[in-house]
Amino acid sequence: MSLLLGVNIDHVATLRQARYATMLDSPNAEPSPLQAALDAKEAGADSITLHVRGDRRHIQEEDAFAIRGEVGLPLNFEMANTPEMVELALRLKPDFVCLVPEHREEISTEGGLNVVGLKDGLRDGMLLLQEAGIQISLFVDPDLAQIEASREVGAEMIELHTGRFANAQGAEQEEELKALAAAADLGRRLGLQVNAGHGINYGNVTTLFAVAGLSELNIGHSIVARAIRVGLGQAVREMKALMAGYGSGGQG
Ligand code: PXP
């Protein structure tokens, strides 16, 4: 099975907000996350990922609705498990919701969700979303107890947090790969779709091929950064070309 690419376009909005946060209605407000999503689609993205954060630091609700209405790719909505975001997701009706922990001070999502600790706290929001036909992914560290708990609370998918892998080198990175492989294996055996994301870039994506059974990678920062040099379409095509090698060595 081929490895799908979800392109996270939050940082297109980060750039716009840096200049136009207080003038979003201005015709000068650029770059456009909607246009970025359309460009990513044309270049072969399999889905669009976005994260409306509680502090609205990058993607805005209006962006999310425009992308939902106009792009025509599966939409993966990353969100904190708060009543405000559940309500927003019920209006937006994305195909998937990925529940993530969210802390105001962090620069980006810093760790996986503590599903083991939260269990009952997750169920109400998850049920509301699932009753509306939205599939749930839980963003978790490659920790077997978290994977089991994800299955127990009724998630359809997990997204393995690859941030530690991305920041590690040498023997430490080998350990992270082993943990990711074991987590992916357990997730698959429990009947979960297994995705991965955070910190994946053009240099490390093929190293991740050591992890079998992945369905989709969600990649944002490295693609948007590359787009500054080569354009977003080309950045997406380059990542897709690298990902096409997944599974060719008996893995994946
Ligand atoms: N997956 C999740 C759950 C995330 O929170 C993020 C960061 O927004 C990503 C994937 C993408 O990470 P990056 O921008 O480092 O590619």
Structure overview:
By secondary structure, the protein is of the alpha/beta class. 45% of the residues lie in helices and 15% in strands. It has a single domain, classed as Aldolase class I (TIM Barrel, Alpha-Beta Barrel). The chain has helices at residues 10-20, 33-42, 61-70, 83-92, 115-131, 144-152, 163-167, 170-189, 221-230, 232-243, and strands spanning 4-8, 47-51, 75-79, 96-99, 135-140, 157-161, 193-197, 216-219. Strands 1-2-3-4-5-6-7-8 form an 8-stranded parallel barrel, surrounded by 8 helices. α4 (83-92) links the parallel β3 (75-79) and β4. α9 (221-230) crosses α10 (232-243). The radius of gyration is 17 Å and the shape is globular. The termini are close together. Residues 8, 10, 51, 78, 98, 100, 108-109, 139, 159, 197-200, 218-222 line the site of pyridoxine-5'-phosphate (PXP).
